[in-house]
Amino acid sequence: MQHSPMRLLDFGDCPYLPDRRWHSLALHVLEASQEDIQGLLFSGFRRLGHLYYTPMCEGCQACISLRIPAATFRPNKNQRQILRRNQDVTLEVEPGSFSQEKFALYQRYQSKRWDKQQSISAEEFCAIYLEQPGQGLDFVYRLEGQIVGVDLVDVSPLGISSVYFVWDCDPRRSLGIFSVMKSLEWCLANGREHLYLGLYVEGNDSMRYKATFHPHQRRYRGGPWADAPATGWPKP
């Protein structure tokens, strides 16, 4: 793997919890094999462009890596209802690539979901989400032919990682939860063991849905991937 030296970066204010700073160990990866990418995922790294990072905040370990084993996942009652509710949504899986249609969906999502009036440019979008040393796929969701969701996914020999999901449809469809279950179906059909959902933070409302998938595994900083203990997950 060809990469820059590991650095501790200050990313500014924490996007997950108030009154905290966000620091991450990061390295710029220029070239990497599929096995290298798998090793980074296994070690809890996330990706933005060619930058791989993992939280390393002083005095805080609230960020927990979370992944779902595809073979043992079982949807609960609410998740089964979401599957039925979205039977009219189609999924197309294609190589990661830029299109104006996908970028316009991203811009609508940023404006409606996060109230960001000035989104990034198309060039910045490509640099952050599409340019990478590994292999990317786009999970494209359509309703009556119109694009309503895109999950930007990184692929490794043993799993896939959801880098960023954007959507634009009736919130009652719970398209984010639907997309996780469709990704798990893809994992089973394509010989991948895990779906990596990135970071989970207790107390962050936008991440609460991740912990509703059972069984799932968590990786606390410096520790191994683990199943839920009989006494419940420890507080970070």
Annotate the secondary structure layout.
Layout: E1 2-3, E2 7-13, E3 21-31, H1 34-42, E4 46-48, E5 51-55, E6 63-69, H2 77-85, E7 89-95, H3 100-114, H4 122-130, E8 135-143, E9 146-155, E10 159-167, H5 175-189, E11 194-201, E12 217-219, E13 225-227
Parallel strand pairs: 10-11
Antiparallel strand pairs: 1-3, 2-3, 3-5, 4-5, 6-11, 6-12, 7-8, 8-9, 9-10, 12-13
Could you describe the 3D structure shown?
With 236 residues, the protein is of the alpha+beta class. It has a domain at 67-198: Gcn5-related N-acetyltransferase (GNAT) (Aminopeptidase), CATH 3.40.630. Helix content is 24%, strand content 36%. It contains five helices and 13 strands. The protein has an eight-stranded mixed beta sheet with strand order 7-8-9-10-11-6-12-13, sandwiched between helices. Strands 1, 2, 3, 4 and 5 form a five-stranded antiparallel beta sheet that branches. It starts with a strand and ends in a 9-residue tail after the last strand. The mean pLDDT is 95.
